[in-house]
Design goal:
The chain is an alpha+beta fold. The chain has helices spanning 45-60, 63-67, 104-114, 116-123, 132-137, 153-161, 169-173, 187-197, 221-227, 241-248, 302-312, 316-321, 361-385, 403-413, 424-436, 462-493, and strands at residues 2-8, 12-19, 24-31, 34-37, 40-43, 70-77, 82-85, 95-96, 149-152, 166-168, 178-179, 184-185, 208-210, 215-218, 234-236, 239-240, 257-261, 265-271, 283-288, 291-298, 331-333, 351-353, 393-396, 417-419. A six-stranded mixed sheet has the order 19-20-18-17-23-24, sandwiched between helices. The longest helix is centred in the last third of the chain and has 32 residues, at 462-493.
């Protein structure tokens, strides 16, 4: 029998089937579209649902899955996307994704009412405009009393497949309106958001919540017909994509930690208790009793590399192949969608420092890769300063597949990085499907993931990279006032 993971990603939907031992059987990906208009970056939830049907149908019809039928499915979910729906659960407007900045004013106003420390104590998240509650409070047309409710992307899809509209604890936390200790929607946050929005925002307009790995319903006949799966197949609450990647890559309490290199780059760890992260940019949420995920990362990540690829007119794989062999005297702040969550600075922008007439494209490409390593080192140091054990670092995602690029990142970070092949987020979702149906007793019983040869820091460049890591932090500190001014002026000029 097989388990199905559905990865609801920023740039597409991927369905992947695995054996109960976590071994891959079949997968299929369908791209989805994002639209950008200034501060607005949106996806179309109905289009995402169509992509789910297509991706699952392709996997269900594969010979391996026809032989080894799907017994349950679950989700890996991009964070912060939110869908306004009508009474039938259909989307009535596009869904803003993580990098959408419409919530900037609402976040500031709600932060003034609650206080940043109170917001983080309740929600486990740093106060940042990326979170769903601020996008709702921004009050776009069709988002007020016209909406019957608001769905996270997993709750939206699950309900249309036949289950209840349920968000798991981790994705509920990424709305910025969830009390992570009480495991319930925060009336305090919702009241503050409603006062800013100018319309009531109450828990009954949001999805129900459940722990990852909880059965929330079954596939109905209409969805079964469109996917090729059996009607009555259990649908299980999934997890935020970073949590799913962590579980799918074999992350454990105390290590290994998991570094996801996708549209965003993120380092994730697991602890038994909720760590004290007051006043930091770390985000923290529960995934089970006695199991807390903590993470920090850079919003742009792979998007920054895609931008560079488009800017120079060269495919990413070719850029990697031609990357300079020697570390360049360059530094890149890869904050093309705001800073990393560690600095929690939505006004930050990208910087390339050290350009000369002799700078080559290959050197710039290497500097962009190195910036990921510098951010990893910065996050590791912040974890350690708070007494959070990291252990070994495993890498997953598109950015982990290229050994040369991963080696550059490892050298810049000053730490060995162990790649995990395959689709870790979809694997994590599939394993949660197994948890919900009794294949595994707890998240601690999930099968480990095999790793490839580690990418090791180059000793001959160790001193150089140690200095670069220091300069990386200094560059952000020294340039942020100017960059804030530029960003503010640009927004006011629109």
């Amino acid at each position: 029998m097989s388990l199905l993971g559905i990865d609801l990603g920023t740039s597409g939907v991927r369905a992947a089937a695995f054996t109960e031992a976590g071994e891959p059987l079949a997968e299929h990906a369908v791209p989805t579209a994002l639209t950008r208009d200034g501060a607005l970056v949106e996806t179309y939830a109905e289009g995402v649902l169509t992509a789910v049907f297509e991706a699952v149908a392709q996997v269900a019809s594969s010979p391996a899955v026809l032989t080894d039928g799907v017994t349950a499915l679950s989700f890996s979910v991009q964070g912060e996307a939110v869908v306004p729906v009508d009474s039938a659960g259909r989307a009535i407007a596009p869904a803003p994704v993580s990098m959408d900045r419409r919530g900037t004013h609402a976040a500031s106003a709600i932060g003034d009412r609650l206080g940043h420390a109170t917001f983080q104590r309740i929600t486990g998240q740093p106060l940042h405009p990326m979170f769903s509650v601020f996008k709702i409070a921004a009050g776009r047309p069709g988002w007020g009393v016209e909406a019957a409710g608001y769905r996270t992307l997993d709750a939206f899809v699950a309900a249309r497949l036949g289950a209840d509209a349920v968000a798991d604890y981790s994705i509920a936390a990424r709305t910025g309106a969830f009390d992570v200790e009480a495991r319930a929607w925060s009336e305090e946050v919702l009241a503050a958001a409603g006062s800013v929005a100018g319309f009531p925002l109450s828990a009954d307009r949001l999805p129900a919540v459940a722990a990852p790995g909880t059965v929330i319903g079954t596939l109905d006949a209409a969805a079964a017909d469109r996917t090729g799966l059996a009607a009555g197949t259990p649908i299980v609450a999934g997890a935020h994509d970073q949590a799913a990647s962590f579980l799918g890559a074999g992350g454990r309490t105390g290590g290994p930690a998991v570094f996801a290199l996708g549209s965003s780059d993120c380092l994730t760890v697991l602890t038994g208790d909720r760590p004290d992260l007051t006043g930091t940019g770390f985000a923290c949420y529960p995934v089970a009793d006695g199991a807390w995920i903590t993470l920090a990362g850079t919003a742009a990540g792979g998007w920054a590399l895609e931008w560079l690829s488009g800017f120079v007119g060269q495919p990413i794989d070719e850029l990697f192949a031609e990357t300079a062999e020697t570390p360049p005297a360059l530094l890149v702040l890869p904050y093309l969608a705001g800073s990393g969550t560690l600095d929690n600075d939505p006004l930050a922008t990208g910087v390339v420092a050290g350009l000369t007439l002799d700078t080559s494209r290959a050197e710039v490409a290497r500097a962009f890769l190195e910036s990921t390593g510098y951010e990893l080192a910065k996050i590791r140091a912040a974890f350690e300063s708070r007494g959070v054990a990291i252990g070994a670092v495993r890498a997953v995602g598109t950015g982990a597949a290229n050994a040369s690029a991963l080696g550059i990142r490892a050298s810049a970070a000053g730490v060995a990085v162990h790649p995990v092949a395959g689709q870790a987020s979809a694997r994590g979702a599939a394993l949660l499907a197994g948890l919900g149906t009794g294949v595994f007793g707890s998240i601690h019983d999930l099968p480990d993931a095999p790793t490839g040869p580690p990418a090791l820091p180059e000793e001959r460049h160790a001193d150089w990279y140690a200095r670069q890591r220091r300069r990386f932090g200094e560059l952000y500190t020294s340039t942020s006032p100017t960059l804030h001014s530029l960003t503010t002026d640009k927004e006011n000029h629109r």
